[in-house]
Amino acid sequence: MKLLAIVAHPDDAGIFCGGTLAKHADNGDEVAVVHMTRGEYGGFDTTTDSVAEVRSSEAKTEAKALGVDTAFLDFHDGQITYSLEHRLALVEVLRDYQPDAIITHYRNDMHPDHQATSRLVTDAYYMSSLPLVDVEGEPHDIDNVYYFGKPTAEFEPDVFVDITGYQDRKERAIEAHESQVEFLQEHGGIDAEFDNLIEGVRADARVAGKRSGVRFAETFATLHETAKGYLG
């Protein structure tokens, strides 16, 4: 099975679906994370280039911790737009990776990059199978899209993945984003729910686990019902 996570920023995968990605990688599945941006607005360095360099390196360290592949599309942080250009770029990504299932952001999120990524991935999921869409690669059918949401997002999950054996590894992967952990703790305000990032992530996983009868879990909402349960 091939599983592809498409996320807006370098720390999003670890925070929201790191346990699921590591679990599938350990089960022998082909797992990759594609980052829309290098997160150059999320840091304290004096230039966006230096922030991007640091965060790219941290994302690669995270990928090693989770046992997955990683890549960057190099869209600009804070400037992902719901446009045909970006949609077709993602169609090409899907045709290149040929995943069975996709993980991405839920549409209802405060961050505009997360919102745009969700819409773009959903549209690309549909368009990747159309033979007359003029992008590189062979048309490819994908079974489903699995959306993760921030604690503030209003979404009702219908898939709970038991990550009890992977919570510690997920937290180590998040800690690879040393610069971002510091930035979120200092940022406050809009990102106040991440003032204590690791503790907050652990608490969310514990709540999700309680709902599903396990110790720790990650939650997802599916685009449509399907007979194939790829996440588990």
Features:
232 residues; alpha/beta; seven-stranded mixed beta sheet; 7 helices; 7 strands; globular
Characterise the protein shown here.
This protein is α/β, with parallel strands linked by helices and 232 residues long. 43% of the residues lie in helices and 18% in strands. It has helices at 12-26, 48-66, 84-97, 112-127, 167-175, 178-187, 197-212; strands at 2-7, 30-37, 69-75, 101-105, 144-148, 159-162, 217-222. The chain has a seven-stranded mixed beta sheet with strand order 3-2-1-4-5-7-6, sandwiched between helices. α4 (112-127) links the parallel β4 and β5. The chain is globular and about 50 Å long. It starts with a strand and ends in a 10-residue tail after the last strand. The model has no long low-confidence stretch (mean pLDDT 89).
Topology summary:
Blueprint: E1 2-7, H1 12-26, E2 30-37, H2 48-66, E3 69-75, H3 84-97, E4 101-105, H4 112-127, E5 144-148, E6 159-162, H5 167-175, H6 178-187, H7 197-212, E7 217-222
Parallel strand pairs: 1-2, 1-4, 2-3, 4-5
Antiparallel strand pairs: 5-7, 6-7
The gist of it:
The protein has seven helices and seven strands, in the order βαβαβαβαββαααβ. Strands 3-2-1-4-5-7-6 form a seven-stranded mixed sheet, with helices on both faces.
Q: What distance lies between the first and last C-alpha atoms, to the nearest angstrom? A: 12 Å
Rg calc: 17 Å
Query: Would you identify the regions where 5 or more consecutive residues have pLDDT less than 50?
Result: none
Give the proportion of residues in helices: 40-55%
Element order: H for helix, E for strand: EHEHEHEHEEHHHE
Question: Major sheet: size, sense and barrel closure?
Answer: 7 strands, mixed
**Percentage of β-strand residues:** 15-25%
